[in-house]
């Protein structure tokens, strides 16, 4: 999670929330009371003013309306605002974001904001979990869904003395009796890797490609 996110108090003007969002290039702005107690959340869509609210007002009335509009009047709050605890897993956060169609979650404990986690944070961690920025071979293998298949694959890698830096798996699309395993391997050539894996009965190489350290 992002620790110590930028926050705002409920009595601040909407124009101040807009300034914070634009200047800091953020999308989620937690609204807090004393002690960082979560009250709500501001996002850019919440700052949009409905045209029908302004249609009958003259320019001075519009200025007065916008000047007096506070964060508390436009923020997401209550059941509209999903939150998550600091001990939740990344899977919990991803499932909640997907189910609620919300891309940023305040991380709270005893109603106090500890941080903020967004879908971008999850993508960064997915990259890290799969070793995407490390040099090596990214291998995808389709294996039968039965005991011992993972061991066959990791056993070959260990036997060859190669390094295994990351691994993940998902059920194969439209083939529930198989799993697609994604592995990050180093210490071998592509030809050596392909030859070793193709020798495992029932294992099908779906993809193998080299990844390199990204240089800024």
Give an overview in words:
This protein is an alpha+beta fold and 216 residues long. It is 33% helix and 29% strand. The chain is built from eight helices and nine strands. It has helices spanning 14-24, 51-54, 59-68, 71-74, 90-100, 119-129, 149-160, 190-198, and strands at residues 2-3, 29-32, 38-42, 104-109, 112-118, 136-144, 163-172, 175-186, 204-211. A four-stranded antiparallel sheet has the order 7-8-6-9, covered by helices on one side. Strands 1-5-4 form a three-stranded antiparallel sheet. β4 (104-109) and β5 (112-118) form a beta hairpin. The chain is elongated, with a radius of gyration of 25 Å. The protein starts with a strand and ends in a 5-residue tail after the last strand.
Helix content: 25-40%
User: What does the largest sheet look like?
Assistant: 4 strands, antiparallel
- Please indicate the percent range of residues in DSSP E strands (runs of 2 or more): 25-35%
Note poorly predicted spans. Answer: none
Q: What is the straight-line distance between the termini?
A: 23 Å
Draw up the topology in text.
Layout: E1 2-3, H1 14-24, E2 29-32, E3 38-42, H2 51-54, H3 59-68, H4 71-74, H5 90-100, E4 104-109, E5 112-118, H6 119-129, E6 136-144, H7 149-160, E7 163-172, E8 175-186, H8 190-198, E9 204-211
Antiparallel strand pairs: 1-5, 2-3, 4-5, 6-8, 6-9, 7-8
């Amino acid at each position: 999670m992002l620790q110590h996110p930028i926050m705002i108090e409920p009595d601040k003007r909407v124009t101040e929330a807009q300034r914070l969002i634009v200047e800091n290039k953020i999308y989620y702005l937690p609204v807090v009371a004393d002690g960082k107690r979560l009250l709500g959340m501001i996002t850019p869509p919440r700052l949009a003013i409905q045209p029908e609210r302004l249609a009958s007002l003259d320019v001075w009335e519009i200025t007065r309306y916008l000047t007096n509009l506070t964060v508390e009047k436009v923020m997401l709050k209550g059941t509209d605002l999903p939150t998550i605890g600091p001990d939740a897993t990344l899977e919990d956060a991803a499932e909640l974001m997907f189910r609620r169609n919300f891309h940023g979650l305040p991380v709270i404990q005893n109603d106090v904001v500890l941080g903020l986690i967004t879908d971008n944070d999850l993508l960064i961690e997915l990259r890290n979990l799969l070793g995407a920025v490390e040099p090596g071979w990214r291998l995808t293998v389709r294996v039968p869904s039965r005991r011992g298949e993972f061991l066959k694959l990791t056993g070959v890698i260990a036997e060859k003395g190669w390094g295994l830096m990351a691994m993940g798996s998902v059920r194969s699309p439209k083939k529930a009796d198989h799993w697609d395993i994604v592995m990050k391997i180093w210490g071998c050539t592509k030809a050596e890797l392909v030859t070793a894996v193709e020798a495992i009965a029932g294992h099908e190489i779906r993809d193998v490609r080299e990844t390199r350290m990204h240089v800024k």
